[in-house]
Write a structure and sequence with these properties.
The complex is a heterodimer of chains A (173) and B (192). With 173 residues, chain A is mainly β. Chain A has strands at residues 5-11, 18-21, 31-40, 45-53, 56-57, 63-71, 75-84, 87-93, 101-108, 117-126, 132-141, 147-154, 161-170. In chain A, the strands form 2 sheets. An 8-stranded antiparallel β-sheet of chain A has the order 1-13-3-9-10-11-6-7, with no helix packed on it. The chains are: A mainly beta (173), B mainly beta (192). The interface between A and B is large, with 36 and 45 residues.
C-alpha cells in the first residue's frame, strides 16, 4: 500500500545538465513534494526549477521568485524578481567529493489550468571550502496553465548534477 | 474507500468498506469551502499522533493580500483572548522582505497571503506539533499566493505558538473576518 505520500518517480542522474520529470499525475494530485540530494561538477551550483506547460518547457521571464540564503562565507542575501526565467531552490553547492546539497520543494496547483502554479522550498548545502549554506523561499509561474512537467538544473554552471531526486503526490486516502 | 463528501467535509473511513492503509502519513480530514467566514476542523487532534500536517490549496479571501490565520480549539471551544504569538518572514517578489509578528495576539497570523480571486489563489503547509498534549502548541509553515494586481508573489515563512498548557482538539482557519475560499487537508504523521 502506497500511503498518502505517493512516490511518482525517482531519478538518479549522473553528471547531467537537466533532470526532467515529465509525468506529474497532475490531474490526480494538486500538491506535490519534490526532494533532492545533488552534487555538482562545478563549485557554486545554484539549483533551480522550471515548469513544462503541455509538454513545452517554459524558459521566458514569467516566473516570480523570492529567495533568501545564508552562507558562512558571504552572510545573508536576498533575491527577488517578478520576471525570472526560473525559480531558485538552492545555492552554493560545492564540487568536492564531500560537498553536496539537499532540499525539498512543495508545489501547488500544477494541474489546474485556471490557477497559477506556486512553490515553496528550503535547502542546505556544503559549499566550497566546506562551509555551510541554507536557503528558503518560493515562487510562482505567473500564467495560468496546466503544468505537466518539472525541470531541475544548475543555473550557474549549467550541468553535471549527480544524485537523487524524487517526486511525490499527496494522496487523500 | 474513503467517505462521501458532504457539505464540503470529507472524513476517512466514514463511508464503509475497507479503509486503506494510510502509510506513515495519515489522512484525517479535508474541507473545501467557498466564501466562508471561518473553517473549523473540530475533534481532529488526539494523543495518537504527535505531529500534524495541514496542506491548503486554492486559498484566497475577500481581502486583497489577505493572510490565512489560525486558532485552536480546546475542549470548551475556540481559544480566544491573547495567548498566541507568531512571527513571519514576509517575502515579496517585487520588494525586500519584512518581519511581521505579534505577541499576546488573538490568533496566529501570516500563514500565507493571496489575492481575492481563484486565479490569484495560493497554497502552503503548516506543521503542528503536539496539539493534543497538555502543553503549548507550536506551528511552522510556508505559504503564499499573488496579489490582485499581480505585481508581487507573497511567500510567508512562519512560526506560531499557543502558550497555554492544555490539550487542543481542533483548528480554525480564517482571515480577519473576511470570507475565505479554499481546500484544507489535515494529515497526521504516524510515529509508531
Amino acid at each position: 500500500m502506497a500511503g498518502n505520500l505517493i512516490l511518482i518517480e525517482t531519478r538518479t542522474p549522473s553528471a547531467v545538465a537537466n533532470i526532467d520529470f515529465t509525468s506529474l499525475e497532475e490531474s490526480t494530485y494538486d500538491v506535490h513534494l519534490l526532494t533532492w540530494v545533488l552534487s555538482n561538477g562545478t563549485d557554486g551550483a545554484v539549483m533551480a526549477m522550471r515548469f513544462f506547460e503541455s509538454t513545452v518547457i517554459e524558459t521566458a521571464g514569467v516566473y516570480h521568485h523570492t529567495f533568501h540564503s545564508h552562507t558562512e562565507a558571504d552572510g545573508w542575501e536576498e533575491q527577488v524578481s517578478t520576471s525570472r526565467t526560473h525559480i531558485n531552490m538552492g545555492k552554493s553547492i560545492g564540487s568536492a567529493t564531500d560537498e553536496i546539497g539537499q532540499g525539498y520543494v512543495w508545489i501547488y496547483n500544477a494541474g489546474n489550468s485556471s490557477e497559477y502554479t506556486t512553490a515553496n522550498h528550503q535547502s542546505a548545502a556544503i559549499h566550497t571550502d566546506h562551509g555551510l549554506s541554507m536557503s528558503y523561499g518560493g515562487g510562482i509561474l505567473k500564467q495560468a496553465s496546466t503544468v505537466d512537467g518539472i525541470r531541475i538544473y544548475d543555473t550557474n554552471a549549467g550541468g553535471n548534477s549527480t544524485g537523487t531526486v524524487s517526486l511525490y503526490g499527496l494522496g487523500e486516502n | 474507500m474513503s467517505g462521501p463528501i458532504s457539505f464540503g467535509y470529507q472524513n476517512v473511513g466514514f463511508g464503509g468498506g475497507a479503509i486503506p492503509d494510510p502509510g506513515q502519513l495519515v489522512f484525517i480530514q479535508k474541507v473545501t469551502v467557498s466564501a466562508a467566514s471561518t473553517i473549523d476542523m473540530t475533534d481532529v487532534f488526539t494523543t495518537d499522533y504527535g505531529m500534524y500536517l495541514v496542506q491548503f490549496t486554492h486559498f484566497f479571501s475577500a481581502e486583497n493580500t489577505g493572510n490565512l490565520e489560525i486558532g485552536f480549539f480546546n475542549t470548551s471551544g475556540i481559544v480566544a483572548g491573547s495567548s498566541y504569538n507568531w512571527v513571519a518572514n514576509e517575502m515579496k517578489s517585487n520588494a525586500t522582505w519584512s518581519e511581521v509578528k505579534a505577541s499576546d495576539a488573538a490568533k496566529i497570523d501570516s500563514l500565507g497571503a493571496a489575492g481575492t480571486t481563484q486565479a490569484n489563489s495560493g497554497g502552503g503547509y503548516i506543521v503542528i506539533g503536539n496539539p493534543a498534549q497538555a502543553r503549548g502548541t507550536l506551528t511552522m509553515g510556508n505559504g503564499g499566493g499573488i496579489s490582485d494586481d499581480e505585481s508581487r508573489f507573497y511567500n510567508m515563512l512562519n512560526v506560531g505558538g499557543l502558550a497555554v498548557a492544555e490539550a487542543h482538539t481542533g483548528i480554525r482557519f480564517q482571515n480577519a473576518g473576511n470570507n475565505i475560499t479554499g481546500t484544507f487537508k489535515l494529515y497526521a504523521y504516524k510515529d509508531s
